[in-house]
Amino acid sequence: MSAMQTENLDQLQHLRYPIGQFEPQPYSDAQKAKWVSDVQSLPALLEIAVQNLDAPALHTPYREGGWTIQQVVHHVADSHINAYIRLKMTLTEDKPIIKPYEEGLWAELEDTKGLPINISLTLLHSLHLRWVKIYESLKEEHWKRSMIHPATQKEITLWEQLGLYSWHGRHHLAHVMGLKERMGW
Predict the structure, then answer these.
(1) Nearby residues of 139 by Cβ (< 8 Å), 6 or more positions away
(2) What is the CATH number of the domain that holds 102?
(3) Average pLDDT of the segment spanning 14-21
(4) Rounded to whole angstroms, how far apart are CA atoms 135 and 162?
(5) 146-149 and 154-157 strand pairing
(6) Residue 111 falls within a domain, yes or no?
(7) How far apart are CA 84 and CA 131, in angstroms?
(8) What is the domain count for the chain?
(9) CB atoms < 10 A from the CB of 83, how many?
(10) What is the reported pLDDT for 6?
């Protein structure tokens, strides 16, 4: 592979994963505080990031072959609703088997394509208030409770889920911010 091909692949990887991929961390109170803060602040940060974007900007993909900014905002709401439900199931059931969903197909549905993003931004503000309230109430032993993903049969602890969704929000926020920077918006 030539140096130019390697550079192009690195650039594509950076556009796809602008903050890198999720890396699990061991439990600590400091890490928990950071991740909960990330979840808590995401709705406001995402709203600020998109507040001055016009319709053509909202319909611009954050990378070639990627979702538009509008789809990203609606996807974050869809994904975080699912995560919130999974959290509640894991707290009230013994190792529930979670229901996966086809996020790519969800991004093509009319509510994602045909509704303004303020619908999902409003939803995220309310959802994250409830989500953080539960996270803040958990004791250390709760973080070990787990759910099972049916495709992989992997157990995912609530601790891993918190880290993943801290990352997920920052990941998609970086998609929006990166596009804005590249486009000079």
Answers:
(1) none
(2) 1.20.120.450
(3) 95
(4) 8
(5) antiparallel
(6) yes
(7) 6
(8) 1
(9) 19
(10) 60
Nearest CA among 63, 59, 33, 60 for reference residue 163? 33
**What whole-number distance in Å separates Cα of residue 54 and Cα of residue 48?**
13
Which amino acid, 63? R
pLDDT tens per residue, range 25-67: 999 999 999 999 999 999 999 999 999 999 999 999 999 999 9
3-class DSSP assignment, residue 155: strand
How large a percentage of the chain has pLDDT more than 70? 95
DSSP character for 141? G
* 5: amino acid identity, one letter: Q
Report residue 163 as tokens: 């880290």
pLDDT digits (tens, 9 = 90+) for 163-172: 999 999 999 9
In a domain, 79, yes or no: yes
What number of CA atoms fall less than 13 Å from residue 152's CA on the CB side?
Answer: 7
Q: How far is CA 102 from the centre of its chain?
A: 15
DSSP H/E element including 65: none
Which structural domain, as residue segments, surrounds residue 80? Answer: 43-183
Give the span between the Cα atoms of 93 and 107, in whole angstroms.
Answer: 29
Written as one letter, the residue type at 68 is T
Domain-located, residue 76? yes
Report the pLDDT value the prediction gives residue 1, as an integer from 0 to 100. 67
Share of the chain above pLDDT 90, in %: 91
